Amino acid sequence: MAHRALWSGRFTEPLAEIALKFSSSIELDKQLYREDIAGSIAHVEMLGATHILTAAEARKIRTALNQIQREIETGKFRLTEEHEDVHLAIEQRLIHKIGPLGGKLHTGRSRNDQVALDERLYLRSAIRDINKLIIQLQRVLLYKAEKYFGTLMPGYTHLQRAQPVMLSHHLLAYVSMLERDLERMNDCCARLNKLPLGAAALAGTSFPIDRARVAKKLHFDGVVENSMDAVSDRDYVIEFIAACSLVMTHLSRIAEEMVLWSTKEFGFIHISDAYTTGSSIMPQKKNPDMAELVRGKTGRVYGSLVNMLTIMKALPLAYNRDMQEDKLPMFESVATTQQCLAIVAQMLVHSQFDRHRMEEELRNDFLTATEIADYLVRKGLPFREAHAITGKIVTHCIERRMYLGNLDLETLHQFSKLFAPDVFDFMLPHRSVEQKMSSGSTSPHDVKRQIIRWSRVLKVRRG
Length: 463
Ligand code: ARG
What we know:
The chain is mainly alpha-helical. It has helices at residues 17-23, 26-29, 33-49, 55-73, 86-98, 111-147, 167-192, 211-217, 227-232, 235-261, 289-312, 327-349, 355-363, 369-378, 383-399, 409-415, 423-426, 429-434, 444-460; strands spanning 152-157, 160-166, 269-271, 351-353. The strands form 2 sheets. Strands 1-2 form a two-stranded antiparallel ribbon. A hairpin with a 2-residue loop joins strand 1 and strand 2 (160-166). Arginine is lined by residues 25, 29, 85, 111-112, 115, 321, 323-324.
């Protein structure tokens, strides 16, 4: 049996069953019950402190709100579809428990500022959790970078073998990307951490409320200044999902490399059985499903971003019910980003890189061709000429099905008399990385420096 809606004063007919079902958001926004109650408690304490309610009234309401929280958590009170949303459900329960006094809670407030408050509180704590997961993944990557320090692998551009790099360098690139993700999350959090409550429906309220007090109680850095802005924008949700989208972009790239690297063709990584699955028909198969799912789930978050942008596009001020549709993209982005961060970290911890395979591939190729060109440059040739000569050497090798390592000095002299016996040293993959001098390069010296810096940073970081 549906309740008579709390707003039904001017209505002669109840909301049609199908309309209630269509418009109810409780299946999703019930996740906000903690935030909703925390916001209501801060609000009612302020109503008491400003004598809008008596101290005794405020106390009674606060006690009942705490009880409702316990009732929800113990399953005694269920947030079900007969309610329009979490805000009305809790208020209705309050009135049911303490009578008409419960109706005083909503003084000087509206669901429009209430929902914005709940979301800001929710995102603030979701960001805290996401940040912990980002840091955890950074730590795993750093751990692997330390563990495999010294391992060389082909570095790629266009997915074509380019130059030898240190595996640690490759892994630390992701640590840097995740660092910016963390910064974006923190930026987003700093901007959304303002109290919208007190905007009431859109124009503010004629009650002498104390917004600063509520802001302080809920640990906000001040209030949203303009009441119409406070209830009509969801830019903080959009910004948050945009930050999640970039996290997912980075995770999808790690995931893609895990998929690629675990193929027979690459054979660079062994993902533990616990994070792979078998085929129901092909007994030999071991599939990197978790990594594929991370790649696939990235679509949910990007979709949520477009969803949110589209909901908000061209909406006239101030609140519009369209905005209720923000719940799904918001919750979906939080859940997906958190799950994917956690699974990638676990999957990486339980993976092993195949150092032997990586280094083998370095020998059987032309990855140090740039080094030969640079060698000639050191002997005085302009780089373009050196590049052309080296290109010819590579073609010579390809035609004879051989690699740089198989060349002898006599052959090299056919291409340039500048080659001396020390050129063979230059062609060695480990020499290639050791010769790098620019800061931020893949030289062991620089990679070690990155490892030391990240160890220091991540050691003291909480999370
Ligand atoms: N469930 C609504 C939402 O999430 C709460 C605000 C509703 N306000 C209103 N005036 N109908 O947007």
